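Record 1 of the preview.
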Amino acid sequence: MHIPDGLLDAKTWGTAWVLGGAALAYGATKTRERLQERQVPFMGVMAAFIFAAQMVNFPIAGGTSGHLLGAVLAAILLGPWTASIIMATILALQAFVFLDGGVTALGANILNMAVVAPFAGYWTYRLIQRVWNNRTGTLVATFSAAWFSVVLAAGACAFELAFSGMVPLRVVLPAMLGWHVLIGIGEAVITTVVVGYLTQVRADLVYETAKV
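->
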């Protein structure tokens, strides 16, 4: 899902930089307002965990693999705005140090994985948990939110590639969604296991006090 340099035209990556940058600027303000002091060290731990977990690939099919995105995991544990900051930091580090994702495309990658993914997943989680407010509902909400976040972020990536004239939408959208529907299952399993464990043993660290 990390878009490299050269796949987006100037109007697309420029627009994505503006939208992604504006979201992060507002997110930094909201994070300062809402993040409690005791959660600051946890924010660093979460960023390190997601960064390391993204290095571990799990097999999908046909020789392909996926890895944890981590947007919903961070959003449930620390809130969606803080998750955006964490994900953007990881994406910037990957782009500038590890050359994983282009610098010109960084705005688009931030928009997809640090804005669309955490917020789409977070509100999916909140919606399900409101109507299914017990521990089973929490786990189902987490699984669904994590899966949906990956699929929607992949869809956003497909639209950006199509808007750039790189490949027709009718080709790129099914291709992106087809693989990420499968990758999303791995994302959902990992996220549900971690959230389920932390809400049992350290519910005080969780932004959404999901322990029921």
